[in-house]
Each structure stands twice: as structure tokens, then as C-alpha cells.
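Model it.
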Amino acid sequence: MRPEMTAIAPGTLPKSSPRGSAARARLLRGLLPALSLALVLMAIAWLNPRAISYFGFNLMLNLAIPIALATIAQMFVIAGNELDLSIGTFVGFVGCVTATWLRDAPLLGILVLLGSIGVYALLGALIHLRNLPSIVVTLGMSFVWQGLAILVLPKPGGKAPDWLLSIMSFKPPYIPFPILAALIIAAVVHFGLMRTSYGVILRGSGGNAAALRRAGWSLLKTKIVLFALTGLFGVLSGMALIGITTSADANIGNGYTLLSIAGVILGGGEFVGGRVSPIGAVIGALTLALAASPLLTFMHIPPDWQVAANGAILIIVLAARVLISRRER
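Modeled.
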């Protein structure tokens, strides 16, 4: 006996549910930073296949570690719906301290670096208690850090401590050190911010501050912790930068402010709502590090176009994110 056949009227074929489409859009949105990095890597492999090697990645990602650390520092501020315009000059100040006091007078250097983290924590408290715009406060602090850097090191020079040079010149087998360091940074920050209960509270200060206040948590404390973490990773970024360049300059980190913001946004973060992604931020930093110098060099484009190339990549990714968000809605 033949089974009955049900006629289907034209135009009534089953369609995917809105929930399924939204899930696919969210998945694509989460994969967008990795897709951006993959496209840049494919372009580099097509232009110069020999660059895709152990030595090639060590060379191309030489400055990726300090950029990734500065991006993570910026990410903590953005998680609290704030913005830090002083992270670049702060990295330069830390670099000057590292190349001078931390080498010649380690105890003084350590105290100065710890004090700078404390200054960042006080900035968070000041911004919260006085309800000041973080853009204005950190913009003013950028001039302060720049001036202090010039006082510490009036002209380029200094030398990185030997132990720091040893760390940054580490050559692990099989995996290039910049990639290994990026994996460790992403894993540690992702676990602390995304997988712990206090990490949820820190993100909640940017996502829903009113609900956090009603639950009895101190918004002042969360703001202080976020800014202190920004200072901590800013210190690590400055030290890593000097460990690579071996000497310092007061202007050495000035470009890191825009790079850090671009890395967070490229990695899926948003300026409001506490929506950040540590893994995406590190991927965004790697993408910018690869797209700036290596890709343009292989394309025979002058280095003066590096900023324009980073901006173009950011615009393309943001445009794709807008299209995906519309489909998600």
C-alpha cells in the first residue's frame, strides 16, 4: 500500500525559523574576528608563502605581544562603558621607567610601576565619584604621562633589563613565541573575565549598572578594579615593548591608543553594554599587527599607509558586523 502524498501549495515551502537564523547570525558575529585574521593570513600566504613559517611568524608578529596587552588594557575600560585615551602615552612612560630605573635601581622602578597602577585605580574612583567623562580625564592624563616620560628619559636611550630581554627572546619549539604568548594572554583573561563570578560583576558594571547596584555590589569598587587592571596590563605592555626594542623613547607608545581601541572593536567589543571578548580582542590585535607592516610590505605599499590600512580593515569589519546585527534582529 502506497503512503499518502500531501500536496504542497506553491510558495509554502518550510522556511528556517527566526530563532535559527538569529543563532546563525550570532555564530557568524562571534567568528568575524577569526575570519578577519584568516583573510589577512591568506593574503600574506598568497603574496609571500615563505612568510608562513616559524621564523616568518616570529618576525611578522614581533610587536604583537605589547599590542595585545595594550588592547586587553583598553578592553577592561571599555567593559565599564569608559574609554582610555592615555594608554599609549602610559605605555611610553612605562617603557622609559623600564629602560632606566627598573634596570639601574630595580626597587625604585618596581615602586614607580606599582604606583602608576595605583594612579589608574584612583582615576577610576575619580571618574565614578565625580561623574566625569572618562574621555576628558584620560585625555588630560595622556599629557601627564607624556611629560613624565620625557622627564625620566629626555632623549631616546636606556637599555632593557637582561631578564626582560631573556623573556622576550624566548624561542619555544614548534610554536612561535608571539603566538604562544597570545594564546596564554587570551586564555587567562578569558577565564578571569568570562568564567568567574566576579568577572560577570565587572562586565555587569557596563552592561546593567542599575541592576548591579540593586544587588548590593559597589560600582565604585568595580570601576577601581577595572581601571587597576587597565594599569596592570598597560605596565605589562610597556615592559614587553622594551623587551623587544631593547631601548626606550618617550614617544614609543603613542600609537597604541588608537591600536588598542581598534583591536577591541575589531575583536567584537562595543563601546556600550559591557560587551567585550578577550579572545576576540587578542585576535583583533594580531590582525592589526599583521595588516600594518607585513601585509603592506609584501604589497609594496609605503609604511605611511599603515594607519589607513588599519582604518580600512576596521571599517570593513564594522560594516559586516552591522549587516550581521540587522539579520540577527
